[in-house]
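Write out structure tokens for Organic solute transporter ostalpha protein (DUF300).
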Amino acid sequence: MCVCVCTYILNVSITKGYTVLQVNSGFLTRILATMNPARVTFMAATVCVMLTTHFSTQLLSEHFLSWKKPKEQKAIIIIILMAPIYAIDSYVGLIDFQGSKAFFMFLESVKECYEALVIAKFLALLYSYLNISISKNIVPDEIKGREIHHSFPMTLFQPRTTRLNHHTLKLLKDWTWQFVVIRPVCSILMIALQLLGLYSNWISWTFTIILNISVSLALYSLVIFYHVFAKELAPHKPLSKFLCIKGIVFFCFWQGIVLDILVALGVIKSHHFWLDVEHVEEALQNALVCVEMVFFAAFQRYAYSAKPYRDESSATSDKKKE
């Protein structure tokens, strides 16, 4: 008898729970149906920015709580902040989706200037892993004299094969930091010319060529360094760390190209007289970046995990106790 009563109560509870779930789902569906696509997109972007910020803040707090190697972890913190900065920057673009060209150029410049800083800090992180200090003239003897093989077009300016020493390491550092300088200078000039109404097509192409050469040189220095020290850097997962950086830039760049093509083909168009197709494209780009940063922030938890520093801190405290 008791078993029958319990079974009856359980069945009633499940039925009621299912009914409540159906009512709530139906209610949510009706709410979403009454909202326009722009508002749904904005709400989804809001959730994505919150998730990205949560993942990044959690990882940052783990590093701060396991603060063991300041030189390495300072660079890691700057890199971790790339995802939330990109997400918040794109979110601001969604809030004011009818902004001027100069406004969107400024938002894009913020992301690209931070990208330049992150690339430079990534090389600094690799230097730290190998105990290299250019400012203090510290280069471990075991890595001196290794061969660096340059490829075209760098062979036009450098010997095909050079030996690793303090000078060549400083040169690689300079090649990354030149982008940190050139990117903001170009951004300021581009925004100023846009505000003055002097930003013509040929000027745009000129800046594009300069910036592409600059970023290519910065990335080339990272690739060269990785090839020379791939074995020593393997325990630090440099490839996954680099993909966290370059993946963000890659997706932002190529999805922008795809959106340009879709606009040119007429696939993306504006359905409102007060909103031109360029602003629609800009809003789509910003919304996609907000979504993508959630995944990159989650992937950073693997690539830039605080576990090695936490384990080292635990090992150090255990030795002190002994």
